[in-house]
Specification:
The chain has 742 residues and is an alpha/beta fold. It is built from 24 helices and 29 strands. The structure holds the ligand O=C1O[C@H](COP(=O)(O)O)[C@@H](O)[C@H](O)[C@H]1O.
Length: 742
């Protein structure tokens, strides 16, 4: 028998840290006269330089753990060669090479494992090339393709990826890695539950009659350095909650294989019963924006590096049991575990050593100050049986309290061989043990659970926490079906810190973002009602900041008569209305299309950017049309209210620093910044009765500082906003402002 292992991304981070060691462990365990191996390290770099790098990795990072394995390592290294895979021709040559080597020796069975440790955007194209040039349907060949998460970015992209892969490979050839499924304790959750003939008491208690709550936690001390381009697009919910924590939860709560229903099916049944989280809290460690080096600051300020979610399983067995997921970077400790906390409703009258103590089962996956992964069970249970690979005679002495108790109050067992997750999964891929991998059929269901939350988190500014969360601002409580932070930062800010009431000589309103949005919305609503039935013309800016404002306005103005209100736009990108980049799209989605908002259609004035021939076709003179519309509808060309934003470069509306649009006399202009845009100009903005500038998030702190030091002639557009007769108010949230004042 023979195995070819082809690793794509062979000099990358993961390969260096875990994969080559895993392949060596596999080789050590299985190589013999009857089983041979060849390893190809592949990558886009040319052979010469990459071979040198690869050799260094093998030399330094592949560790000989057993005695006398030096010779084994030498043999292993001699079986590894580098192969450049940068073009279709390279894949063709690799296919040919694999074929030729098979024709030299006749093997009874051949296993071909392609391991893709490459960015997910290359999955489909690579899969296509592998299938085209390196795939073989010969009977004695077992083909496997191994992928790393992320498997998609949301439900649609997961479906798309799945559809693409299915074009080339059968489901039983695809091995999707979630490395948490390779962790020694996670691998033993099901075996631990399977020994239920031996632990009948425990398995009987795993339901809503007895369980108070379940927690699945992965806390880290590391931050996101070196990973911003990945992290900015993902955040902790996609990175950890959707996959690692969910997989662990499934193992703890799924039905066991029974009456012929196999594990993957049981998992899928359970997934279908897991609801969208009832509540989610998000946070971001304070250095995130600085570290991300201003890479896409508008996006970065919305990225959660901490999340806590409250989930529920709507099955007869689990209904009503709160399930809490917690994960975050830059926290005070590194630990991961799943624990089941049992209800304690026994009133003990005499001799009560366990009074008020909840019993627990803890799957301690790693770190957290314990010397080893382990399974812990409260001694309330008379006896506990642990799975075969676990050792109860470990003689570990742990003096401090763990999980709120003395170590001696638990039965505990540690894995006999604590093998690294990747090594275990590489062995499983080799052995065709598919149950250690993510099943294609349940991927889509697990993404669906997070769909609404992912949308929610793109519109909320996360709570900022210090590295290590020294002041416990992330502590939260379960309050019915919601999670709430224990500390109210806003109150603290008010009492602890200087709270100014003006900025650049204009009125300033400042608060935590949610309160700030409410304050601005309330001001708008009060101005609308003051106007009585007289026409009220309001223009809104685009971008992400106003989205939450729109939602609050929709709630406050629901079922209120708004026949006198006219809605205008401050600026718009030349894209279609369906695009997420369209400002009108967000205005419509979050405010106007709410069934309880009754503004007549004729009062809604979207900027005419979608013209017949193409968006913002210059011949169609959309800007002139809009200007004319303003002149026709608005007495004295004076808006009653304009909501502006502030860009990290000092732009406001779509007026950018030092651009000719700043000195235009017309009211509406076309301009270009990554795309064509239409914008109101300073002459009309400065005529408004009220201008409110909304500034939220830490990403704006630098520009706020700059504004304090600059003079109006500096070419920064926001400094040219200066209403002639009207009022101007700054609405700046505490994230942006507190840092400005420090
Ligand atoms: O997949 C991931 O997991 C790691 C945490 O894994 P662990 O084995 O160190 O517990 C996490 O740091 C990373 O962001 C995520 O992509």
């Amino acid at each position: 028998e023979h195995t070819d292992i082809i690793l794509l991304g062979s000099t990358g981070d993961l390969a260096q840290k875990y994969l080559w060691q895993g392949f060596f462990n596999l080789y050590e365990k299985h190589s013999s006269d009857h089983h041979t191996f060849t390893f190809y390290g592949c990558g886009r770099s040319p052979k010469h330089s990459a071979t040198e790098k690869l050799n260094k990795i093998l030399d330094k990072n592949v560790i000989c753990e057993k005695k006398n394995c030096v010779d084994q390592k030498k043999k292993f290294v001699s079986l590894v060669s580098y192969f450049q895979l940068a073009s279709e021709i390279d894949f063709k040559n690799l296919g040919q090479l694999l074929k030729n080597s098979r024709s030299v020796t006749k093997y009874e069975a051949i296993t071909v494992i392609f391991y893709l440790s490459i960015p997910p955007e290359f999955y489909t194209r690579t899969a296509e090339n592998i299938h085209k040039f390196c795939y073989s349907v010969e009977e004695n060949i077992n083909f496997r393709i191994v992928f790393e998460k992320p498997f998609g970015y949301d439900t649609n992209s997961a479906i798309q990826l799945q559809t693409n892969l299915e074009k080339y490979f059968k489901e039983d050839e695809i091995y999707r890695i979630d490395h948490y499924l390779g962790k020694s304790v996670v691998r033993e959750i099901l075996p631990f539950r399977f020994v239920r003939q031996l632990n009948p008491e425990i398995e009987k208690l795993l339901n809503n009659k007895h369980v108070e709550r379940i927690e699945v936690v992965l806390k880290e001390t590391v931050d996101c350095k070196g990973r911003f381009s990945y992290y900015n697009n993902n955040g902790v919910i996609r990175d950890v909650l959707q996959n690692h924590l969910m997989e662990v939860l499934l193992l703890v709560t799924m039905e066991l294989e029974e009456n012929g229903v196999k594990i993957p099916q049981q998992k899928q049944n359970l997934l279908k019963n897991i609801e969208t989280p009832l509540s989610v809290l998000i946070g971001q460690y304070e250095d995130y924006l600085d570290q991300s080096n201003d890479e896409a600051p508008d996006l970065a300020e919305f990225v959660p590096t901490f999340a806590a979610a409250l989930l529920s399983i709507e099955s007869p067995k689990w209904h009503g049991v709160p399930i809490i997921f917690v994960s975050g970077k830059s926290l005070n400790e590194r630990t991961s575990y799943a624990r089941v906390i049992f209800k304690n409703n026994i009133f003990c009258v005499s001799n009560c050593p366990n009074m008020n103590q909840n019993q627990q089962i803890i799957f301690h996956i790693g770190h957290g100050g314990l010397p080893s992964p382990m399974i812990l069970v409260s001694k309330y249970f008379k006896t506990v049986e642990f799975p075969q690979g676990f050792n109860t005679e470990h003689n570990l002495e742990i003096k401090k309290q763990i999980y709120g108790k003395d170590f001696s109050e638990f039965f505990s067992a540690v894995p006999i061989n604590d093998i690294d997750a990747y090594s275990s999964l590489i062995q499983d891929a080799f052995n065709g043990r598919k149950e250690s991998f993510i099943d294609g059929s349940h991927l889509v269901d697990s993404w669906k659970i997070w769909e609404d939350i992912l949308k929610y988190s793109t519109e909320r500014i996360p709570r900022i926490y210090e590295n290590g969360d020294e002041h416990n601002v992330l502590d939260f409580k379960i309050f019915g079906s919601s999670l709430e932070y224990v500390k109210n930062i806003e109150k603290e800010d008010a009492s602890d810190s200087f709270s100014p009431n003006s900025f650049l000589g204009r009125k300033l309103v400042t608060a935590e973002s949610e309160t700030l949005y409410k304050a601005l919305a309330t001001d708008i609503v009060s101005k609308i009602s003051q106007q009585n039935t007289q026409k009220f013309h309001i223009a809104f800016s685009g971008g992400k900041s106003p989205i939450r404002l729109f939602q609050i306005l929709a709630a406050l103005l629901s079922d209120v008569s708004l026949n006198h209100v006219h809605i205008w736009q401050v600026d718009e990108r030349c894209v279609s209305r369906e695009s997420e980049d369209s400002n009108f799209h967000h205005l419509l989605k979050n405010f106007l299309s709410n069934g309880h908002i009754s503004i007549p259609d004729d009062n809604i004035h979207p900027m005419p950017v979608s013209q017949i021939k193409r968006n913002c076709d210059l011949e169609s003179k959309g800007n002139t049309i809009y200007e004319q519309s303003i002149k026709n509808h608005i007495a004295n060309k004076q808006f009653d209210y304009i909501v502006l934003g502030l860009g990290a470069d000092g732009h406001t509306a779509s007026l950018f620093p030092n651009e000719p649009t700043l000195s235009l006399k017309s009211y509406v202009a076309m301009t270009w910044k990554s795309v064509f845009r239409m914008t109101l100009t300073l002459p009309v903005i400065n005529r408004a009765k009220q201008i409110s500038v909304l500034v939220t998030g830490k990403a704006k702190r630098k520009i706020l500082k700059t504004l304090e030091k600059s003079d109006p002639g500096s070419g920064l557009p926001i400094l040219r906003v200066n209403p002639t007769d009207g009022e101007m108010t700054w609405y700046i949230d505490s994230n942006a402002l507190s840092l400005t004042l420090n």
